[in-house]
Amino acid sequence: MTWDAAMRTALELAANGPATGANPRVGCVLLGPDGTVLAEGWHRGVGTAHAEVDALSRVPEGGARGATAVVTLEPCNHWGHTGPCSEALIDAGVARVVYGVDDPGHHSGGGAERLREAGVEVEAGILADEIERFLGDWLTAARLGRPYIVVKWASSLDGRTAAADGTSKWITGAAARQRVHEQREASDAIIVGTGTVLADDPSLTARGDAGELLSTQPTPVVVGTRAIPNDAAVFRHPHPVIFEGTHDIHDVVADLRQRGFRRAYVEGGPTLAGAFVAAGLVDEYAIYLAPSLLGGPHLALGDIGVETIAEQRRLRIIDVERLGPDLLIRAVPVDSPASPHRAASAAATAPARKES
């Protein structure tokens, strides 16, 4: 098997791992000296072996001597809840390590250097672009030291999220609303302001077509200082509510980072969304547009500090999807610190990769 083919298999294996949480999804394929597959492994989440160790556990003692380990992410190089994968590969007698993307963690990175010091041949950058896309949210979180933040809203074509009387159910159709639930399911946290809780009484759950709870639920996070009624729907969420009793978005993001959240989904309202935009803390926008006009005061986004046209926040559209009569537009900031041309400088100060 070629390195490219083995890396594609490793990428498929990595996709078996959990898409949320602090740890990356990683896959590994061990190849014998003749290119045959000796073993495969992947990381199953916190508390489990990393992909390299998982693969090594599937060969008899001494069976990996002289092998090539093909792994999607640079092997880690520090003690966390588990030992360094670099040392496990060295101890197993692996002769060569081929990986896709560097680990940006300040403490967990450096596995490639340690392997070379031990005489292991190392090749980097195999299918790097594909792996960068696959690990996009985790890499952004690791490089920036905070969760990957998606801001979502659903609006009419003229940017309104409700009619003049405040009614908003439903601006978009069933297909668009279901996609929102899928995006919730793919997130560690769902964030709203106290104003949204008081006005809409949302459950903040991820649900299926029939209203059933999906298997993975985001943790609800409520930002603000106003009191919430004891019978609010959010208190019936499967996960306990996190109350961020502040209006300081940076403090909120720092707390989410400490909790190990990888991906946060900001759903409302316009004041909270505007605060994230103004603070430069948005990595992706998920904008649902319905073919309707509402007019009136209920804008999708509050003040973001733009006083003149020269200060407008430029976005790059990365995808447009039709969902019944509606559109989902995904966009990223043009000057996002997560964009590739700024990733190297961000990586220099990145925190360690979380270890399981």
- State the distance separating the first and last CA atoms: 30 Å
- The number of strands is 13
Taking pLDDT < 50 over at least 5 consecutive residues as the criterion, the unreliable ranges are 337-356
Radius of gyration, taken over Cα atoms and rounded to an integer in Å:
22 Å
* Sequence of secondary-structure elements: HEEHEHEHEHHEHEHEEHEHEEEH
- What is the molecular shape? elongated
> What is the overall number of helices?
11
| Residues in β-strands, percent | 15-25%
Mean of pLDDT:
90
Structural class: alpha/beta
* Spatial ordering of strands, largest sheet: 9-8-7-10-6-11-13-12
How would you sum up the major sheet? 8 strands, mixed
Helix content: 25-40%
What does this structure look like?
The chain is elongated. It starts with a helix and ends in a 9-residue tail after the last helix. The strands form two sheets. Strands 9-8-7-10-6-11-13-12 form an eight-stranded mixed beta sheet, sandwiched between helices. A five-stranded mixed beta sheet has the order 2-1-3-4-5, sandwiched between helices. The protein has helices spanning 3-14, 51-56, 85-91, 111-117, 128-134, 136-144, 174-185, 194-200, 249-258, 270-278, 340-347, and strands at 27-31, 37-42, 68-73, 96-101, 121-124, 148-156, 189-193, 219-223, 242-244, 263-268, 284-290, 315-323, 326-333. Mean pLDDT is 90; it is low at 337-356. The chain is 26% helix and 22% strand. The chain is built from eleven helices and 13 strands. With 356 residues, it is α/β, with parallel strands linked by helices.
